[in-house]
Write a structure and sequence with these properties.
Layout: E1 3-5, E2 12-14, E3 16-19, H1 29-41, E4 46-48, H2 64-75, E5 84-89, H3 108-122, E6 127-132, H4 158-170, E7 174-180, H5 184-197, E8 202-208, H6 220-227, E9 230-234, H7 260-263, H8 275-290, H9 295-304, E10 309-315, H10 319-327, H11 335-348
Parallel strand pairs: 3-4, 3-10, 4-5, 5-6, 6-7, 7-8, 8-9, 9-10
Antiparallel strand pairs: 1-2
Helix pairs in contact: 2-3, 3-4, 5-6, 8-9, 8-11
Organism: Caldimonas brevitalea
Domain NADP-dependent oxidoreductase: 16-344
Keywords: Oxidoreductase
Length: 353
């Protein structure tokens, strides 16, 4: 598996990252450990998790995925040094009252305490990439489209967030820092303040990127290119809709039953489950088949080969899915197929924004 460097951090990561949000909910611990072993054998050295996982988020499963990873490290001496480990501190409450008592803020002390809790669950002495899961300030995200100044509240400043992250870096708890679900303003401001005050410079931003959501290309890609910040593309298969499993009758088919969009009521309200998003997925999936590709292979190849993407985060529930996703690495899409993809995007835009 090809490696790339995240921003200016020096972290060398595989171009495909194994996301772990399914571990502890759809995937039990023994299955998770087997998937981690196989991913490592296949050349994946980059693992991403978060304190709020498993997903869908519940108080009972908060931190469960990190604990599963920690047990994997403990059972396999030496493995921790072979992987680049990323995790995330949750942003302000989005109705999750078990996270910092539903605080509308994320203070420096919160960041430090959350990191120490993650280290304990992960059974490690350092986190390679520590990310803020979503912005502390109000921004449109997770399906939101419009910024609303009326929802802006006094919260911890970006400078103070960086100060807390800097403390963790100085203490050797964290090697590099990153963001998730960020905007062009946020990326530019984090970099500006880090350089101005000698604080840690963000290495990466983990944002959605797929055939159904290419909003990254609407300006954020230029910001990150010019500031040397790497994109970690999450949901490249749009929560499974770009695999074809929902093509026949939406979320109601037996083939779809195991998918998150069909299995969990909370997921049916997600942007990926919008009727227009599922309709767009069917268009892309048909296009893939017309060109002799599986929908999964075309969707992943699109992300794997884009200059904007440093590493693509895949989520799986079994070894077959993992192999299918990894086997898509190295697939190239013809100029004619890419032109057809762009024609569909011009018509349908980004329905899972």
């Amino acid at each position: 598996m090809e490696l790339t460097t995240l921003g200016r951090s020096g972290l060398q990561v595989s171009r495909v990252c194994l996301g772990t949000m399914t571990f502890g909910e759809q995937v039990d611990e023994a299955q998770a450990h087997a998937l981690l072993d196989h991913a490592l054998e296949r050349g994946v050295n980059f693992l991403d998790t978060a304190e709020m996982y498993s997903v869908p988020p519940r108080a009972e499963s908060f931190g469960r995925t990190e604990s599963i990873l920690g047990n994997w490290f403990a059972a396999r001496p030496g493995v921790r040094d072979r992987v680049v480990l990323a995790t995330k501190v949750s942003g302000p409450s989005r109705g999750y009252d078990w996270i910092r008592n539903a605080s509308p803020d994320l203070t420096p002390d919160n960041i430090v305490a959350a990191c120490h809790d993650s280290l304990r669950r992960l059974r490690t002495d350092r986190i390679d990439l520590y990310q803020i899961h979503w912005p502390v300030r109000h921004v449109p995200m997770f399906g939101g489209v419009y910024f609303d100044p009326r929802r802006d509240l006094p919260v911890t400043s970006i400078h103070d967030q960086l100060e807390a992250l800097g403390r963790l870096v100085r203490d050797g708890k964290v090697r590099a820092v990153g963001l998730s679900n960020e905007t062009p303003y946020g990326v530019a401001e984090f970099v500006r303040l880090a350089e101005q005050h000698g604080l840690p410079r963000i290495a990466s931003v983990q944002n959605p990127y797929s055939l159904l959501n290419r909003t990254h290309e609407n300006g954020l890609d230029e910001v990150m290119y010019r500031l040397d910040v790497s994109l970690l593309a999450y949901s490249p298969l749009a929560f499974g809709s770009l695999t074809g499993k929902y093509d026949e009758a939406g979320l109601a088919t037996p083939a779809a039953a195991s998918g998150r969009l069909a299995r969990y009521d909370t997921m049916k309200k997600q942007r990926w489950a919008r009727l227009e998003a599922l309709a767009a997925a069917r268009r892309y999936n048909t296009l893939a088949r017309d060109h002799g590709l599986t929908p999964t292979r075309m969707a992943l190849a699109f992300c794997y080969t884009k200059w904007q993407v440093a590493s693509t985060i895949i989520g799986v529930t079994d070894r077959r899915q993992l192999d299918e996703d990894l086997d898509a690495w190295g697939t190239t899409l013809s100029p004619e197929l890419l032109a057809e993809i762009d024609r569909i995007r011009w018509e349908l835009r980004d329905p899972a924004q």
